[in-house]
Amino acid sequence: MGPPTDPVGSADVQPTSSDVVVIGGGIIGLSTALFLAREGLSVVVCEKGQFAGEQSSRNWGWVRRMGRDPRELPLVVEAMRLWDEMEALVGCDVGFRRTGILYLCENDADVAHHQDWIARAGAYALDTRIISGPELARRLPGAARTFHAALHTPSDGRAEPQKAAPAIALAAARSGAVLLGNCSVRSLESSGGALSAVVTERGRIATKRVVIAGGIWSSQLCRTLGLRLPQLGIRSSVLRTAPVEGGPDGAAWGPRFAYRKRLDGGYTIADGSRSLHDVVPDSFRFLGDFLPILKREWRHMRLGFGAPLVAGLRDSLRGADGAAMAFEATRILDPQPRQRQLAAAYAALQEAFPIFRNVPVVQQWAGMIDATPDVIPVISTVQSHPGLVIATGFSGHGFGIGPAAGRLAADLVTGAMPIVDPRAFRYERFIDGTKPLPTTGV
Ligand SMILES: Cc1cc2nc3c(=O)[nH]c(=O)nc-3n(C[C@H](O)[C@H](O)[C@H](O)COP(=O)(O)OP(=O)(O)OC[C@H]3O[C@@H](n4cnc5c(N)ncnc54)[C@H](O)[C@@H]3O)c2cc1C
Q1: Is 25 touching ligand 1 by the criterion CB < 6 Å?
Q2: What confidence tens digit (pLDDT) does each residue in 278-329 have?
Q3: Statement: residue 437 has pLDDT above 80
Q4: How far apart are CA 47 and CA 70, in angstroms?
Q5: C-alpha of residue 326 to centroid of ligand 1, in Å
């Protein structure tokens, strides 16, 4: 089970037509819907399960500029501005606090790696710098050991994933968006070369504009339109603790653990250094696209061969019907957390911070990160399908950037001046022979 999220109701009646249909009720689809509804468009959001039931409630809750791929930096600056205004935008506190983020370094090589990011980020590095000694120790109350140094951004922050996307959903509904939970989109229809309808399990919604914001399911959704979107899942496990007195206030990434203080006084903890990819049919389909990043990251990757491969093969054999059935068969994707990895991460944290020693673990869960070959998202119109916008592939960093990504997707729907230049996020980079340029974020 995922962590409990703030509740979001669902409309009883599915409209027969809408200016825009958004597929996916995670932070990206919901932010897009909020901005579209505020501009007076009629919007329907279809969510196959529970709003924010997948990645958007299961993530670490880091809102960071630090370490980002330089291509994402202009968008994340907009996102930070929106997080500052979030309470006014959605009408409640979603736990956004600029409590700083640290990347802990063990040696000079780690420091050099991070200094390289500062150089690449240029003017966007703002208040990011390397700190060490007493200055670092002050940021790590409760630590029993010293760290060589850290990359530190005091203006980065955190927010509560179990609150933020639900609050955005409720604000979108107050602005007029129709939210349909437990409502899977089975396919999209077009006529005369343009989109004409979305077919859900409840029937047809006539529309000329659709936003695909389906997280890890987006590639499968695109396939119903004959579009190739290379995207693969990374299973990422998390635990949360009971409240802890006297611990560090912000978030930090260490060599064997990562932590983030929660609004409830507990901590969200994980091991961010190793990834698990569950092999599925798409792993073979998109192998060529992912080779450059695989070559670079293989030391930190594990492969899983199990139930997801069997289920994927079964759905592939069923063709288009198999895809539609998969959306409904998995209302909420709830992967198994890797308990041994979590136990090791918590033990490493307890060794570094003895104040955690007797603090019980309240819950463990996992989420499926939707990665692209260059580890930056697609936020894009699609030349071959006028009226379609894709906003997906956030590759493990879509929570922090989510509000601005939704703003950008809404701009692309309406044709307004986009908040940032969207060219780095264009869909066609994956089909026009452009070589994927794997991320230079850290
Ligand atoms: C463990 C973990 C830690 C992370 N930590 C961070 C972090 O600290 N900071 C950060 O910025 N990011 C983090 N991320 C990444 C972040 O959570 C995601 O990038 C972000 O939530 C993506 O939002 P989304 O709306 O695109 O996808 P999702 O939240 O996955 O939402 C997609 C939704 O689409 C729905 N859907 C799919 N297909 C259909 C269909 N056919 N019909 C109807 N609905 C459909 C799904 O049910 C789902 O609810 C983390 C992710 C994980 C898993």
Answers
A1: yes
A2: 999 999 999 999 999 888 888 888 998 888 888 888 887 777 667 778 899 9
A3: no
A4: 32
A5: 17
* Residue 53 CA, closest ligand 1 atom number: 49
Residue 173 contacts residue 179 (beta carbons within 8 Å)? yes
Helix, strand, coil % in the chain, rounded to nearest 5: 35, 25, 40
Nearest-atom number in ligand 1 for the CA of 327 is 41
Rounded average pLDDT over 423-427: 97
Is residue 148 situated within a structural domain?
yes
- Average pLDDT score over residue span 87-106: 97
Amino acid identity, residue 17? Answer: S
In the reported structure, the alpha carbon of residue 238 is separated from the centroid of ligand 1 by a whole-number distance in angstroms of: 15
Give the pLDDT score at 258.
Answer: 97
Ligand 1: atom nearest CA of 186 is 41
143/403 Cα distance (integer angstroms): 34
pLDDT at res. 440: 67
Query: Which residue of 31, 103, 399 sits with most ligand 1 atoms within 8 Å of its CB, as the best mutation to test the pocket?
Result: 399
Mean pLDDT of the 91-120 span = 96
Q: Which domain holds residue 81?
A: 20-430
Measured in degrees and rounded to the nearest 5, phi and psi for residue 25 equal -105, 45
396 lines ligand 1 (CB under 6 A): yes
Residue holding tokens 């966007």? 124
- With a 6 A CB cut-off, is 337 part of the ligand 1 pocket? no
d(CA 270, CA 341) in angstroms, rounded, equals 8
Residue 441 has pLDDT above 70, yes or no: no
pLDDT per position as a tens digit, 230-274: 999 999 999 999 999 999 999 999 989 999 999 999 999 999 888
Assess whether the C-beta atom of 335 lies below 6 angstroms from ligand 1: no
Helices 27-38 and 161-174, axial angle in degrees (round to 10): 30
The residues, ordered by sequence, that sit 6+ positions from 318 with a Cβ below 8 Å of its Cβ are: 325
Q: pLDDT, tens digit, for every residue of 60-87?
A: 999 999 999 999 999 999 999 999 999 9
State pLDDT tens for residues 10-32: 999 999 999 999 999 999 999 99
| 380 bridge partner residues | 390
Q: Where residue 106 sits, what CATH number does that domain have?
A: 3.50.50.60
Q: Ligand 1: does its nearest atom lie under 6 Å from the Cβ of 213?
A: yes
Q: Is residue 441 part of a domain?
A: no
Is 438 a member of any domain? no
Domain count across the chain: 1
215 lines ligand 1 (CB under 6 A): yes
Q: Which atom of ligand 1 is nearest to the CA of 399?
A: 11
The response to whether residue 156 sits with its C-beta less than 6 Å from ligand 1 reads no
In a domain, 268, yes or no: yes
**Which ligand 1 atom minimizes the distance to the CA of 221?**
41
